[in-house]
């Protein structure tokens, strides 16, 4: 989460890759949803985690394909917010709150929500806003949404809309009206995609029933999902009717999906909840894999290193080739200053999951942290692959700039800085570094041409 290289001190490093905004106000596809409470503001932001993202993609990609979307190009983002919410924005980008994931009971419930979101993406809902957001960075998407949410919080949606210059016609009423006309459509599309992939819609129904209970109990203090996904009885009835007649309603998800779900929840709880809450949910008497995983992470966060490593070692004895257990032990060692001890765990994890860009980024970062010149070539190779897989990841470009600088390739370092600034939406700075790179790059080389491309997209920027 931090917007800087992770510190080896503290827990919020390689799991929580970057903090996008300190006080986020989030939105669903169809409109503003309210203000994050103070506790979430302290830790709120977008987080990156290879295992959790891989889990969500395993759930989502069959649905994306059934919907006719180009599955590899749909981006998945995790938001550190304890409330239940999910939304799509800026084209094919899916956002899920950690609160929704932690409160889900099984994989099918998460899949049901993703199916609904896929219905919004496939339907091109709220195209006017999507056109406004499509070419913006994730940071600016959140900034735009924050302006709208600020207006809602103030009781004047026009204030928020004006603040982000979306035009006077985009108001809270317009968003919510559009939402109400689209929700049942997204439900129907989502259930169609679930049927197409031979999956049950029961999880979506269970999710709605959970929210229905919250509506009755919480009144105005409802999760934001309810504010922008009006849960009228007709919607629940329609999903129930589908469950009653679908031939797939009693089909179970693959066993590994629920295993992945339980590990995902345990990992989030371990990283995001206080130790006493973690131990309450996963007491030491519980020797299941998720419980040991949650405790290992929670103990690591409070610097109880021997106990944390004991839990991780017990997991690795049972599953010595689990890439994400290896990654986690690497992180625990790395952030406790044992950099060279951590590197073999990261490298083995990457050997097992070579297409995970975050693992490549992490391996490169740890190599750079050793300050050993023998690793520079490998670090650059890993970052080349990470940026190929995720060309808009600013952190990989930042590490690339460091690596190229240490290797004495100053024009390439400047080009990497230009890429980083472009990924952050800072076109003026990107233009500066692109010009600096061109001064030292061979004319006509691929890097020189890329610097020219960056200059081209930055040409009319006024930031």
UniProtKB/TrEMBL annotation:
Annotated InterPro entries: Mito/Outer_Membr_Metalloprot (IPR051156), Peptidase_M48 (IPR001915), TPR-like_helical_dom_sf (IPR011990), TPR_rpt (IPR019734)
TPR repeats: 323-356
Top-level enzyme category: hydrolase
Cofactors that this protein relies on: Zn(2+)
Pfam families: Peptidase_M48, TPR_16
GO MF entry, a single one: metallopeptidase activity
Sorted UniProt keywords: Hydrolase, Metal-binding, Metalloprotease, Protease, TPR repeat, Zinc
PANTHER family: METALLOENDOPEPTIDASE OMA1, METALLOENDOPEPTIDASE OMA1, MITOCHONDRIAL
Name listed for the protein in its UniProt record: M48 family metalloprotease
Organism: Dongia soli
